[in-house]
Amino acid sequence: MPDTETPLQIALSADGAKDLSWQANALCTQIDPELFFPEKGQSPRDARKICASCEVREQCLQWALATNQRHGVWGGLTSHERSMLARAGNKTRRLRTAKKAMREDTIVQLHKASVPVTEIAQRFEITERSVHRIVKKARELQKQSA
Questions:
Q1: Tell me, which fold does domain 94-145 have in CATH?
Q2: How far apart are CA 102 and CA 97, in angstroms?
């Protein structure tokens, strides 16, 4: 094996503050690291085959996403695939946040229209306490912006 660092060694040096104990079980530590960093135009197929049978594939992928690894095959995905996955996750989060904000605005509007709290809670399948919390949060935000 060449004197090149393995993906595991690169990972360990990149962030010693996180728990990286899962990497001790990574199959890539037993393979030529160049396989996981194919040159432009080379296929990542062989690296993917190894990743497919690795028991820590998911942890590897999560680590690569969290640390924004821009090169190589991590968790069975290329940098381009990880980038697409991260963008899709960001869109999903933004959509979920927007839906939550619209839902909370509707709850506040219903409360202002004197719809009983019990009815609001039933309509949105939440507790009455949650309705009160949402209304209180909206009042606090309104006070801050005034």
A1: Arc Repressor Mutant, subunit A (1.10.10)
A2: 9
Q: Are 23 and 45 in contact (CB under 8 A)?
A: no
Which of the 8 DSSP states describes residue 38? P
Location of each CATH 1.10.10 domain in the chain: 94-145
Smallest Cα–Cα separation from 59: which of 76, 43, 44?
Answer: 76
Helices (H), the chain: 7-14, 45-52, 57-66, 79-112, 117-124, 128-145
Q: What is the pLDDT of residue 87?
A: 80
Give residue 18's pLDDT: 62
Q: Which residue has the tokens 């927007």?
A: 98
39, two tokens: 């040159």
